[in-house]
Design goal:
By secondary structure, this protein is of the alpha/beta class. 31% of the residues lie in helices and 23% in strands. An 8-stranded parallel beta barrel has the order 1-2-3-4-5-6-7-10, surrounded by 6 helices. Strand 27 (602-605), helix 18 and strand 28 (621-624) form a beta-alpha-beta unit. Helix 1 (13-21) runs parallel beside helix 9. The longest helix is centred in the middle third of the chain and has 21 residues, at 474-494. The radius of gyration is 31 Å and the shape is globular.
């Protein structure tokens, strides 16, 4: 399969060798700064240079991750880092922060930019928008269905990259705040603590445990494995096939890259049962084809275990207090790690002290609380690790060259290297002398000139024009050869270099585009309220809301009733949209807007695709919701330049960061000051595990779609709601900052927002006290009394206003 790229993860130089030697056409890696694998062994600048040189000499592209959200003061360092990557010939950067991308496009227009999966691009409109902004590739959300991929590919020229193997996030990437809200370790900063892999319990509407679903790994996906779907992805128009695993060992990279390369070059029919066992053995949490290919529920989630289990070795058939016997279902070798399940999330591992064959009874020393009939797993295979390591010990990727050398007495030697229609000519530094004792022979010359073992070259043809009786030191011949290959290296590497950007010009332009002025006008503060259903709207005092976001356009009856109720009000009315919109969702939105566009002020967007749709097709105001991840002033400026007229800043910002951004923005800015924040947006439905659903066709009528929750290990409950196509999992407690509201509003913001999602009553009282505080109608004692009562009956959080996610 030509013209499709196999893209491998690299976390170390050894992993780089493993990837390249096993057939990767491109690699992606992270530097010490600004990447979403903060805890990986990332590359320093010297290692980065070495990695780029090694890869490019072997015709492998290098993409570097700069894929986290950045605060204002980090932009200078981030741009300097990207300039370094540009100068050393990195082929592209992978970016999450749209503000950073916009600055790079202005400063370094020849640098290719790939949209990280953290940008949550899941529809055609998003792909079109980024192409228009100068992006060359988009890494699609892992959940995008195959038919949607085909549709995007057919209708947009941008390159598409999809994940094909490895660990999966249960939440749409870029939309997960679980780790951030629980412990301040943000996935948007590369510090996710992976709470999704921890055990949790499903609870019903009254908080009782759902039978059979206590202490399960309800949010822990299996590992992706699409070996048998590669051809379909190729036909769908995918450019790059991406393997996950920058934190995995080099042997994992070698094994997985080799097998996918084998499928791409020889076909799936050439994959043996041993190949399938090896890819499972090297690491797996159980395998799934992924949501892209329709897997759902129990086919998608590894609910009994969240970690690698290797392959099943057999079952304990006999034991006493000293020994146990396993009936082997596969071979085991001395040095392999054997593991036994001894309880819920409890395992006992030991090293095999001898070898055994499939079908044999294998007796070893008993340790720990292993019981009869226990399943034994082969967690690691020494022979697989060794064969994987062997695959990249030697450099097997060579470029064939022709060489010719002319050696004449009293002349300097001349070496010519021919490679791919390029000729390199070199002249030695010393004159050839007449031999007194041992003249050079053709055999000696060829032996020295063809010593190419430590290079990327392999001699194809050799011509030697040697006059009889010549002498020159062998060291001179070796030096001539080395200079020739070095010059050829430079020629090849030069093909990857981009147009030079002088450092002094870069500094001047960088300082100019980073300059921001305080331009905020002092206006009356506004209260924005977002409601999820008509019942919540009915509880509002319409005299005490300035801007209303109606977040249920997919319920036409409720929407029409709501607009009728609001028709005589002076409230700004916006239709709320979600962060995840596929083709059918967008068609529904367009249908709704065609009927109501004259009755509303605008649309609230949480997705770049929706932003592009509204900007290009409607004369409506655009409000940017938190799904856009506005984390710095440059993102705000970019969004303003692309049609956004008001914006909610990221819920992960501290108040001092908010103040700086708000005062440097000319559009209206606000923050969520009350509400249950969605900490995960997932295609996976936790309740599908209970019902045994194989798809999400019945979500709208499902009795489990509302009121159920997930309780973590310490008993904290996270409520969830299922809308058509995705689940919102909400933080266990609402943000409630009434006692700091004036301080927040006076930071330079144009107002604040209240989100009503799970609330069924008490809405008007909350609205009244917030409105009075914002408008300076209330008094301090009334506010303090309300807060005391609210705290007595509810747990609350200040969110990130006073702690943030950046140390």
């Amino acid at each position: 399969m030509e013209n499709i790229e196999l893209l491998a993860p690299v976390g170390s130089m050894e992993s780089l060798y493993a990837a390249v030697q096993n057939g990767a056409k491109a690699v992606y890696l992270g530097g010490e700064l600004f990447n979403a694998r903060h805890y990986a062994s990332n590359f320093n600048k010297e290692e980065m240079k070495k990695a780029v040189k090694y890869s490019h000499l072997r015709d492998v592209k290098v993409y570097v991750t700069v894929n986290i959200l950045l605060e204002n003061k980090e932009m200078i360092q981030a741009l300097d880092y990207v300039k370094f990557l540009y100068d050393i010939g990195v082929d592209a950067i992978i970016v999450q922060d749209i503000g950073l991308a916009s600055l790079v496009r202005k400063l370094l227009p020849d640098m290719d930019i790939h949209a990280s999966t953290q940008m949550t691009i899941n529809n055609l409109e998003g792909a079109k928008f980024l192409y228009k902004q100068g992006f060359t590739r988009v890494v699609l959300s892992r959940e995008v269905p195959i038919e949607e991929i085909k549709y995007i590919s057919k209708n947009s020229p941008i390159e598409l990259e999809v994940f094909i193997h490895g660990a999966l996030c249960v939440s749409y990437s870029g939309q997960c705040l679980m780790s951030s809200m629980i412990g301040g370790r943000s996935g948007n900063r590369g510090k996710c603590a992976q709470p999704c892999r921890m055990p949790s319990t499903l609870v019903d509407k009254k908080g009782y445990t759902v039978n059979g679903w206590e202490e399960k790994h309800i949010l822990s996906p299996k590992d992706l494995n699409t070996l048998e779907e590669i051809l379909e992805l190729k036909k769908a128009g995918v450019t790059s096939l991406k393997i996950e695993g920058r934190m995995k060992r080099p042997e994992y990279v070698a094994t997985v890259v080799d097998l996918y390369n084998k499928v791409l070059n020889k076909g799936i029919e050439k994959i043996t049962d041993l190949d399938k066992e090896n890819i499972k053995q090297v690491f797996n949490r159980g395998f799934t084809k992924g949501i892209t290919f329709g897997e759902f529920g129990k086919d998608f989630i590894s609910y009994n275990r969240p970690d690698n289990r290797g392959v099943q070795l057999g079952r304990v058939v006999k034991l006493d207090h000293r020994e146990l016997t396993i009936e082997l279902s596969t071979d085991v070798e001395e040095g392999d790690i054997i593991e036994f399940i001894v309880g819920q999330d409890k395992y006992k591992g030991l090293k095999a002290t001898k070898s055994g064959k499939k079908g044999e009874y294998y007796t070893i020393e008993k340790r720990g609380n292993i019981v009869n009939n226990s399943i034994a797993y082969k967690k690691t295979s020494t022979s697989l690790l060794e064969s994987s390591k062997e695959s990249y010990r030697e450099d097997r990727i060579k470029r064939k060259i022709d060489m010719s050398i002319k050696i004449e007495k009293n002349e300097k030697p001349m070496l010519e290297i021919n490679y791919n229609n390029n000729k390199i000519k070199l002249i030695g530094e010393e004159f050839v002398q007449e031999s007194k004792n041992r003249p050079l022979t053709e055999e000696t010359v060829e032996e020295q000139i063809s010593k190419l073992g430590d290079t990327v070259y392999e001699l194809d043809k050799m011509e030697i024009d040697l006059e009889e009786g010549c002498f020159m030191p062998l060291s001179s011949l070796n030096s001539l050869r080395r200079k020739g290959t070095d010059k050829l290296d430079s020629l090849i590497l030069g093909e990857y270099r981009k147009k030079e950007v002088l450092e002094e010009d870069f500094i001047v332009e960088k300082n100019e585009i980073l300059s921001l002025e305080s331009i905020k006008e002092d206006k009356e503060k506004i209260l924005t309220i977002k409601v999820d259903n008509f019942n919540q709207l009915e509880q509002l005092d319409l005299e005490k809301v300035d801007k209303l976001i109606i977040n249920y356009y997919d319920n036409k009856d409720q929407l029409i009733k709501s607009l009728a109720k609001l028709q005589d009000s002076e409230i700004e009315i916006y239709i709320g949209t979600e962060a995840i919109l596929y083709r059918d969702d967008i068609e529904l939105l367009k249908e709704v807007l065609s009927e109501i566009k004259n009755d509303i002020t605008g649309v609230s967007v949480s997705n770049l695709g929706t932003l592009f749709l509204i900007k290009e097709n409607y004369d409506l105001e655009i409000h940017g919701d938190i799904g856009l991840n506005a984390f710095n002033s440059y993102t705000v400026k970019f969004l303003e330049e692309n049609g956004v007229t008001s914006l909610d800043l990221s819920v992960e910002l501290r108040l001092d960061q908010i103040e700086k951004i708000a005062n440097e923005s000319s559009i209206r800015t606000s923050v969520i000051s009350y509400g249950y924040i969605p900490v995960m947006i997932t295609k996976h439905c936790p309740m599908s595990l209970v019902k045994g659903c194989i798809n999400d066709d019945q979500c709208r009528s499902c009795q489990y779609s509302k009121g159920y929750g997930i309780k973590d290990r310490i008993g904290v409950e996270f409520k969830m709601t299922r809308k058509t196509g995705f689940t919102n999992i909400y933080n266990s407690v609402p943000i409630m900052v009434l006692d700091n509201l004036k301080r927040i509003v006076d930071s330079g913001l144009d107002g604040v927002r209240m989100d009503f999602t799970l609330e069924e009553d008490g809405i008007e009282e909350l609205q009244d006290i917030y409105y009075g505080t914002i408008k300076n109608h209330g008094n301090k004692s009334e506010m303090e009394s309300f807060m005391d009562d609210f705290r007595e009956n509810n747990k609350i959080t200040n969110g990130h206003f006073f702690r943030g996610i950046i140390e």
